[in-house]
Amino acid sequence: MLMIDLHSHILPQLCDGSQDLETSLAMARIAVADGVTHLACTPHIYPGVYPNSSSTIFPAMQALQAELDARKIPLQLVAGADVHMVHDVVEGLQSGRIPTLNGSRYFLLEPAHRIPVPRFLEQIEAILEASYVPVITHPERLLWLEDNYRDFIEAVRMGAWLQVTAGAVAGMFGRIACRCAQRLLEDGVVHILASDAHGVECRPPVLSEGVEAAIRILGDENEVMRMVLERPRVILDNAGPKRVPLPIEASGQMPAYMGYQLKKGWFGHVVH
């Protein structure tokens, strides 16, 4: 199956992903063998830690694409970034300092892992009002998802997209991340799956295992393939409606969080 992977740290020496050209080439070969045709180069932009910008990302991507072409590795790279959620994201997008995915209105937005982002929904609203679409990365791996689950659902209702890590669906990030990914999938709020690849042995650019696990969870191969082909293509083409209808709307099913029902929750406690 052919797939598009919109989250990787394949560019060498820009963040905590690949640290040399040989690793990047090996990652590219793994992605191609898995069926990936297009791979987004999305190094971290994290002020004070990874001070990347368009001026570092584009030359690195072009250099790596030239190496791939010279070796006849059939992988098309596109530019982007994994943008840490800070106060000046909109300014960075508008100035061009922060690259969007393939020059589209979509970009990867990474919330803090350990603690809730202050005024999370206000920041999402400001980004959307500036005519950008944040693709929130790996919510299933955020330690504060459990207590703030409805905020992510509301972000999706507002127009944000969610990107779940394929490896998390396949159980490679532990039981809790796997269960969170499953809940997001079953609640119909996952727009895309991506690898968030960082290397060869650890966190390789493999989507197929997560795709297979998602199909087992949902029982709907067509919907899962939309997450790794149709919707990523919408992003790369900067196409489609401003807000893509979610599976829950098409099916008419009412997830538990919408009914505010008391029930035994996915996280092992009572959910309101």
Structure overview:
By secondary structure, this protein is α/β, with parallel strands linked by helices. It has a single domain (3-271), classed as TIM Barrel, CATH 3.20.20.140. It has 11 helices and 11 strands. The protein has helices spanning 21-34, 54-70, 89-95, 120-129, 149-158, 166-169, 175-186, 208-218, 221-236, 247-251, 256-259; strands at residues 3-5, 36-41, 44-45, 76-79, 82-84, 106-110, 133-137, 161-165, 192-194, 263-264, 270-271. The strands form 3 sheets. It has a 6-stranded parallel beta sheet with strand order 3-5-6-7-8-9. It has a 3-stranded parallel beta sheet with strand order 1-2-4. Helix 4 (120-129) runs parallel beside helix 5. The longest helix has 17 residues, at 54-70. The radius of gyration is 18 Å and the shape is globular. The termini are far apart. The model is unreliable at 250-272 (pLDDT under 50).
Distance between the termini: 40 Å
Evaluate the radius of gyration: 18 Å
Which percent range describes the beta-strand content?
5-15%
Structural class determined from secondary elements: alpha/beta
Number of discrete domains: 1
Identify low-pLDDT runs. 250-272
Q: Which geometry do the CA atoms define? A: globular
Care to count the β-strands?
A: 11
Helix content: 40-55%
CATH superfamily: Metal-dependent hydrolases
The appropriate CATH architecture is Alpha-Beta Barrel
Widest beta sheet: strand line-up: 3-5-6-7-8-9
Number of helices: 11
Q: How do the helices and strands follow one another from N- to C-terminus?
A: EHEEHEEHEHEHEHHEHHHHEE
| The CATH top-level class label | Alpha Beta
CATH topology: TIM Barrel
Largest sheet: 6 strands, parallel
Mean pLDDT: 90
EC number: 3.1.3.48
InterPro entries: Caps_polysacc_synth_CpsB/CapC, Pol/histidinol_Pase-like
Family: Belongs to the metallo-dependent hydrolases superfamily. CpsB/CapC family.
Catalytic activity: O-phospho-L-tyrosyl-[protein] + H2O = L-tyrosyl-[protein] + phosphate
